[in-house]
Structures are given as structure tokens and as C-alpha cells.
DNA sequence: GCAAGGTC
């Protein structure tokens, strides 16, 4: 039996399909791992797909996190474990004159705790990361007569293959092994690769492994340093890495530019014009041809001329057509950028794309390629998605053409095609976000086959009282690809038909003082593109690295909108920039690439390159340890600044977000504690951020006002003091209790607000006897209607929401709500107290309806 | 409670 090992399941399937000479490959499973069996010239073949790397590099267990000792590197009796040191080079001594750091050298129950620099020189092991796959691989290897490594044709692929080979050798030391190198899933390419098998390139694999080691050593040592320099407690890791830190530095650098930006004053003169006697709809905006006046006096003089003007004369009308080329095919980066512009973060885009790929709706989503291969049948793909009604007209038009021509992007690789739709999707069967992304991909595909758009730009110049004014507008003349791909475009602006010499009405002349704006923050999409440009990360890792920077709170808030670094993020960059500058720039990646090339070419060994990197890090760590206290203070100051939500009305110190040690819940507390005992509750389930300026202090009670961002809902601002008049609502009678009425007594249903939790609810004045209570929405002004629900007899109230009034029956278990409840929304309100009323409700409903 | 790189 011949065993073929690929990097992923998809490749195992494709290779089986392409090499199988009779019939179709048989899909099978070995311990839950899919494999594909087929025969070639009477010989039995099996392909198995790995899941990327199956081994992970790590430090020996005694150097890993320990529940009692934390991240203090440990070795028994102080014995140092030797790292691999190249011949002729000595490992530098670490017991030098360094200051103790992290309980350096302390005895704990007979174990010595060495210093952090030890980690820099520690050996690294490779441990199984995908045990199930390794088990299946070994099982097949035992039975194999020969093995072919068919992982991706790149450095990581060679490493993944080399790790797989090590696993094979565990159980089959003598089985012949060769390597197939291919870069496209076509019959010709795969045939050629398997007819011209080569040896695994151990140098290339070693180069990849050096990358793994160096990333781990730098990442682990610096992360432990930053985290322990001022221990922030559980869940407060302060990470650093070859890619994430330079990425953070990009964002911080932009923020510094914004902070250093000195806005300059300028003035603009603008107004409205319209053809004589025309209506409001034909009015268009005109502005002074000088654009921005840097000199206020000059602007005032010009404005004085036109201020009272009521007419102007058209001095020229220039029309210019321009074509807009259709967009190029999507690769990972351009998809992430386009999706980010539609409000889906790169990380989310990749999660959704993965699910669409698994459902067979789109092609493989991790690609650099932006040129459709010849083997891709464009016409069949158009046909395949023409079943989606929204695309039918565009597909029909394309299918009527004799030949389909696609645009081409700059990057051409042949391993995978650009991202395109592989089947028609049913919008009703997809999650909204899935459909949004599928729609983007499908429309992009159709756009790449469509004609250019033609836009007619019009520039009108108008003389108003001797001052030159102008207006410009764009009109889509030929829709072309824009008919099917309306993303990322400006709105059309139609100017009325005017000719030179025409007189126009002029009104609303204004002189406005403005200021120049600082450079914009990075959007998610722009940052991914910038990372690619600077060689940071890969198509598969950039999205998750940005997400990581949010997770460790170096970026503020959650991934949506422009990226703003936190004080912590800025402090981290400041500190590393001073003492370990190498980790803060993309240079480390490019130098690593050079080293890798040397290893791959055999000019250097893995040990030499890793040793060199360890030595560089050791020097920087020396400087960092030297300044440990300064750095720890800077970090904790930054964390406090990030947590600040306002100023204490009692003692004037900072009010910060705190986490209760007991309940792990959040609350707002004064930094003056224990001298000052001011605390406020925080609404649960929302993300809280401070407000700035006047909005930050409650005019009624002086407590801070904060911004609350509920999950996927509109943000609102609120005073943190629950006793503040702005939060207090007088109890409101919303109806009479039907349960009490049925029992022959009187009970009023009153809406209350809990001072403690801020939660609102309705309770009967005879609650002790009838147990009637209903939950209410947390926010929105409440109004009584006096009406009762026709289904259950509970009172109807109106809640004023941001989207307008909302009429609801307060009974969460009302039969009229059953359908909605099944679909998910608002189920949480059905607390035990409402359930209590349910049983009684059925009887009361009958009684109250019989009363009518 | 460590990075970045693969992939599910």
C-alpha cells in the first residue's frame, strides 16, 4: 500500500480524485480521520490529510506554567538544562551579576527557581498537538510499503511534512519515503509531481522550524516579562510577538501622529445654486474655487462680495467621461478589506468564510492568488449561481456572451484559485452574516466578468459677484459591473442641465471657519492591508493577530470601527521601543526571512540561527530587567488610565472600573479606597466606556456619566448613580390585577425600579397573596395604556425605544408570544416569578374575559 | 496564563 500524506483534508481528496485511474476514490475513516482509498495500476493507494502542523514546539514541562509557582522557570536542584549550542560556541553564563528577578534563585520546597533569562537559553521540545491524526497516521504507516509526503509546496509545508515523517519513522523506521511537489490541483500537475518524486528538503524544514523556535522564545520571554513586571492578576496577560508587536506599533504610531497633530484654521465659502425658477430638488451645492482660504481676511473680503448675491452666471460647463475598471478577483486580504468596509471584522470574515467553504458554497478561503486559473470553468460557475434570484439577470447577460473574460489581479499563484462561489446559496438557509459574505463573494465574482462602468463627471463654474465658484457631480452613464457590485462606491450626484451664459439663482451663502483634521485611524481592512504590505503575518494569521490585540486590551473596545490603541497598548510600545526595539518593527520579520533563506540554502544551520537570536534577546532582556520597576509602574499607570470612567464627586480621585474579587462582577470604585468608599453598580451585559467633556459629569447629581454598549444594540449614555433623579422613575400604575379581582379583592399592578440592580418589574400591591409579577425591559420610558391583552388579560404597556414606541403585553408567557419566543429573542425575561403567574393566569384570563 | 503558523 502506498500512503500519501497531505497538509489538509481538501488536498487529500483532490489528489485522490486526480490520481484515481478506475472509478472514484472511496472515502473512509481511520479513527475519525477521513482518508481516501483508490487503486493505481493495481496498487492500493491511501491519501490522508493532516490539519496543518501536527507537532507544536514547547519548553520542557518544568519551565511551563505551574499552578503554585506561576511562570517561574523551575529546574530541580538548580540544575540547568542545556539548550542546543552549536559547536565551538559557549552558552553565556546566566548566574552573572544580574539582579534577582521573579524570585530569582529562591528555594521552594527543594526546587530552585532560576531567573527569567534562563528561559531564553532553554531547550525546546516538539510535542504532539493533533493526537487523533497522529494515531491515524501511524496506523496507516505501519501498513505502508512506501510513503509520499504531499504537503503544500512552501516552507511551512516542508516542516509539516518533516514532522509527519518523524511520526511515520516512529512506527516504520525503514519504509521508503519521498516527496511530491505540486502547486496546483490539475491532472497534469499532480501526475507530473508523482512521476517525478524527490527527497524531502530537510534544510527547508529546518528553516521553518527555526522560525517556530525563534517566535516561541521571543514571544514567551517577552510575554512573561511584561505580564510579571506588574502582575495584573488572572486574565491579564500582556503579550508580545514578532508580528503582533510591530502591528500594535503601527496603530500606536498613527495615534501619536494624531496626538501631535496641530490643527490649522481655514475658511470656506459655500452656498446653493439652482437654475432660474427651478424647485428645491434642482438645487446644488457650490463652493468658492479658492477652496480652503488660509487667510481669514481674504476669505472675509471674498465673502463680503457674495454675501447678499441672489444670482450668478455660468462661466463654463465641462463634461468628462471616465471609465472605472471592474474589480480584481478576491484573495484573502482583499476579501477581508471589502468585508471590513461592510462591517464584518477580518477574524469574523474568516470564521464565516470557513463555514461557507465547509458547506460547499465558496472555494478555499486562504489564498494569495488573484488570477483565475485556466482550469476554472467561468461559464459553469456563472450557471451554478444563476439559480440565486438576485443574480439571475446579471448571470443571463453574462451567459449570453460568446466569451467570458475576467479581470486579473497583481498576485498570481497556482496553488488555489481566487475566492469564488462554487454553488448557489439559499439566503433563507444562511445566517444573515453568512449571506452577507456569500453575497459579497458572489457579486464580486460576477463583477470580475462584467464590463467597466462609465461615469460622466460634470464641472460647472459660476461667477457670483466677481468671485469664482464651482460645483461638480458624477453620474453613472453605463452601469457595467456596478449593476451587480454596488459595494464601496460613492453616491451619484446629478447636476441640472446648464449651459455657459445661463443665469442661476444663488442663496444661503456662508462663510465657515474649519480646521484641518489629523490623519485617520486605521480601519480593520486598512490594517490588514498595511500588515501585508510590510510583510507582517500571513493570509492565515493576520485576522487572528488583530483579534488578539483586542483580547489583551492593547486596542480599545471590540473589533468594529476605527482602531484606537489603549493607554496600555501605547505604554507597551514605549517600553519595548526603548529596551527591545527589534521586536517593535517589521525588520525582525525581514531579518528572520533572510536567516531562513540561509538555513534553507545550507549556508547556516538551524542551531546557529536560533543561537544568534537567543543571544540578541538575552541582551535586550538584560536591559528590560534592569528597568523592571519603571516599566511596571508605567504599565500599571496605563491600566488605571484605561479603567478610568470619571472623577469621584466625594474626594476628587479617579473612579475606575473594578472587578469584584468575590463575584468577579464589574463595578465602579474610587481609587481613594479605603479612605473613600464611593462605589457604583455597572449595568450587566454591556461594555462600559467613559465620556468626555461636559457629557462626562451628570448635571443633576455630579456622578460620572458613562457610555454603555450592549451586544449588537445601540449604545446609550447614562448616569452611574442609580439614585440620581435622571435614573429614578416614580412608581407607575399600569393596570389592575386580574388574579386578585378573581379572588374578590382589589390589587393594583405597579411598575417599580430596583434601586440596587436598576431592573424594572411590575408587581401587584397584593403580591404576598397573589404572587403576580412581570419583568420589564431595562430601558425606555414607560407608559400605561389602561388596556389588557386579549390573549391573557395581562396589562398592555408602551415602552418608548430609540426606534419609536413599542406596545407590549407584559406577560412573557402570553400565548401571543409563543412564535417569537421559539425564534429566540427575549426569552431571558421569562424568570421564575413570571412562571409562577402562568398557572394562575389561565384561570384569571377566563374570569376577566367573562367579566366583559 | 507564552508566539506564529498551519488547519476544522
TrEMBL record:
Residues 239-244 are annotated as: Interaction with DNA. The active site is at 364 (o-(5'-phospho-dna)-tyrosine intermediate). Its EC number is 5.6.2.1. The keyword Repressor does not apply. Residues 829-852 have a biased composition (Low complexity). InterPro entries: Topo_IA (IPR000380), Topo_IA_2 (IPR003601), Topo_IA_cen (IPR013497), Topo_IA_cen_sub1 (IPR013824), Topo_IA_cen_sub2 (IPR013825), Topo_IA_cen_sub3 (IPR013826), Topo_IA_core_domain (IPR023405), Topo_IA_DNA-bd_dom (IPR003602). The record marks 53, 211, 215, 366 as: Interaction with DNA. Pfam families: Topoisom_bac, Toprim, Zn_ribbon_Top1. Coiled coil: none annotated. Monomer. Belongs to the type IA topoisomerase family. This is DNA topoisomerase 1. It comes from Collinsella ihumii. The lineage of its organism: Bacteria, Bacillati, Actinomycetota, Coriobacteriia, Coriobacteriales. The gene is topA.
